[in-house]
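Good morning N.,

You mentioned wanting to compare the apo and holo forms, so I went ahead and generated the holo version with tryptophanyl-5'AMP. This is what I fed in:
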Amino acid sequence: MLKSKQPSKRIFSGIQPTGNLHIGNYLGAIKNWIKLQKEDNCIYSIVDLHAMTVPNNLLDIKNSTLEVAAAVIASGIDPKKSILFNQSNVPQHTELAWIFNCIARIGWLNRMTQFKEKAGKKKDNATVGLFSYPVLMAADILLYKATHVPVGEDQKQHLELARDIASSFNSTFDKTLNKDFFQLPEPFILGPAKRIMSLRDGRSKMSKSDISDASRINLMDDKDQIFLKIKRAKTDQYPIPENIDDLENRPEALNLINIYASFSNKSVNEILLKFSGKGFSQFKEDLSDLIINEIGPITKEMNNLMNNKDEIVRILIDGSNKAKEIASEVLYDVKKIIGINFKD
Ligand code: TYM
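and this is what came out, ligand included:
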């Protein structure tokens, strides 16, 4: 008898505890997590084992994990409604990842653009963990039989790999069941913030690892920093157009308008209607105010929470215990299906 059930809808997502969270993480992921927790069964993880794939991230991993947990809670994730935990507290993630390592093919991983970007020219020096990172990510999602995964666009390819692993598992091992064991998880890539770009270069993604701090707005930035970064954000000499098609070759302008739309919870067309024909100076002032009004209280709450780290640890342990209950049943079934579970 198998133990786990397939929920009709279960949300899973994760975020790495690596340095500064920025408004790309907030708009592309966390803000959607909060919307989803109102109705759905949600599990969110601070994925510390993923952060370990880059050895430098280990320098301050405990503090970074607590800080990212604080950011997620301060933004509105309620640990009473959603399960919030840190990945390394639930050992089933690594066990399932090993099983998936024996399913995934090197050719599939060789196609991953994020590995190529992160490993850069020194590919031989990258960790094996960085290469097999998307396999662990597939384990994160499938360990909970998640049906939907809210992420930014940069994670789309990893989601496709998780689907490939799930269908390969189903067709390889699952011949005795008349239904697929793993339902294929769907990516949730929502709204105008699916890919927030650098404030200095509209063709590259806003990223924690960009050496220029001016390229991003961090959740810990204060009012003056936000104002200055938006003021200095790259634009062009043309006025704001009426039509979105006219932004096609204007990546910096499009990026700022997407950010504006996301913070104001309005569509890009509504923003264009409001500002069309105008230059960027008033737009930028309004945008700074919007960001400061939304991020300011989050930063304040993050600082409050970081003054009580024991409480964050308690929340993560409690979440890990709840996550383990689900994870252990799914892993039990996986091993039973493969034939390596001798428990009964
Ligand atoms: P991470 O920690 O790099 O980013 C966390 C979330 O933020 C989104 N994001 C962005 N969205 C829009 N614009 C941007 N510039 C931007 N930068 C980051 C990411 O898409 C992500 O949703 N591999 C994942 C973490 C992970 C995970 C998982 C996610 C591990 N296991 C299972 C979902 C399900 C990552 O590195 O995210």
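Residues 309-338 form the longest helix (30 residues).

Happy to go through it together on a call whenever suits you.

Best,
F.
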